[in-house]
Amino acid sequence: MSGAEGEDASGQSMEREVRELRFLSRIQERLFEPFDLDDLVREIIGTCRALMEADHCRVLLAGRETGALHLYWCAGAGPGGARLQTRPVEEGQGIAGWVAAHGETVRLADARSDPRVVADVDGLAAASSGALLCVPMTRRGEVLGVLQVVGRSRGGFSTLDGELLGRLAARIAVALDNAWEHSRRREADRMAALGRAVARVLHDLKNPMQVLHGFVHLLEGRPGVGAADLEPLRAELEHMRRLLQELLSYARGETAFAPRPTEVRPLLDEVALAVGPEARRRGVALEVEGDCRGPVALDRDRFRRALLNLVFNGVEAMPDGGRLRLRLSEDGARVRLQVEDEGVGMPPEVRRAAFRPFYSAGKGGTGLGLTIVREVVGMHGGLVLLDSEEGRGTIVTVLLPRPAGGEARGVVAECG
After folding, report:
1. Strand bridging mode 284-290 / 296-298
2. Strands 383-388 and 322-331: what pairing?
3. Are 311 and 325 contacting, i.e. CB atoms less than 8 angstroms apart?
């Protein structure tokens, strides 16, 4: 190497170190700012891609409450820059999912022939080469996510590149952990105050509800009043009863958990039967498909309530009618349950907020449906995956383990 070439390489190295220090300083500042996950992820993706001189960068984050994995990447460009995209990823799916599961760095000169690659997870299709570097973001022994860069026009990623991306991942993990903890404490305080207020209001609403039910009963015996005339009123009262029960249970923070061996398919049939009248009234056809071998350890009442929330959500997502499918199948050592609608779907901002308490993009709901689903499934040691696109419907996937000894375990970790 000539003197000029050496000076050029030294200059490039120094410039890279300066950019790294600036990024690490910016991440440090993030610890003291309001936490916006999308903005932070977008900044991580852009900076890591530039520092690593890679074609693409992807971030995989593990949820803090459900353990569900979500993949983030930037695509296209608009007035505000590249659009942040996201999708759920199952454990072990793709090289990114493998690194999240094993907590080990993967560096490959050409990953395109690696059997672990999943095209739409690892993003190699649009890369200039098969070069890939993927490192875990670990904090206190827990993998919080994964940083992955793919494609490089000037060759593969070196050991030094791996060390650099590892340093970035370690600092990002600290920022994420601190921000999530701050957000969790703030949300816990807010929910405690809100829960007390909700409990008082709901207690006062019980008597008016009982009076309304009494009037319906009296009307049943009046001449000229048929059962069909009262059906809409009954349906609305039942809807109000469900909303009140949902709010009251959440406000009380009910924690009793009693799993028992439960056959899942009969439970699905029971839920479909309960939702049937409302579905028919809205022009929605319910279909229950599949089965699984043997019972699963479930708290039947809690899990039934979670299923009712999912199915009612699906029905309400199709104002013009359609088909709602409830699918049951085996997935290795897990049971897979899917609720798929043909409804309006969710834009990205709604999808990301879907599990937040009291968040509702529609009208007339409590905003607790998916929150309760997440908590109930988490109690059973399971995961909830949400796949939705505006105009193309929604698929909610529930994955339940079959633990040794048939006993359910507690939730490990939340969806980002």
Report:
1. unpaired
2. unpaired
3. no
pLDDT tens track for 281-298: 899 999 999 988 888 999
Query: What sign does the CA torsion over 270, 271, 274, 279 have?
Result: negative
Retrieve residue 121's tokens. 């997870």
Query: Amino acid letter at 107?
Result: R
pLDDT above 60: residue 4? no
**What predicted TM-score, i.e. pTM, was given to this entire model?**
0.55
Cα separation, 370 vs 309, whole angstroms: 7
> CA 184, 186, 250 angle in degrees (round to 5)?
75
| Domains with residue ranges and CATH for the chain | 3-185 (3.30.450.40), 255-416 (3.30.565.10)
* SS3 state of residue 59: strand
Burial 217-230 (b: 16+ CB within 10 A, else e): eeeeeeeeeeeeeb
Tokens of 213: 């039910």
Tokens describing residue 64:
């803090």
Taking CA atoms, 383 is separated from 29, 69, 231, 376, 410, in Å, by: 33, 9, 37, 10, 11
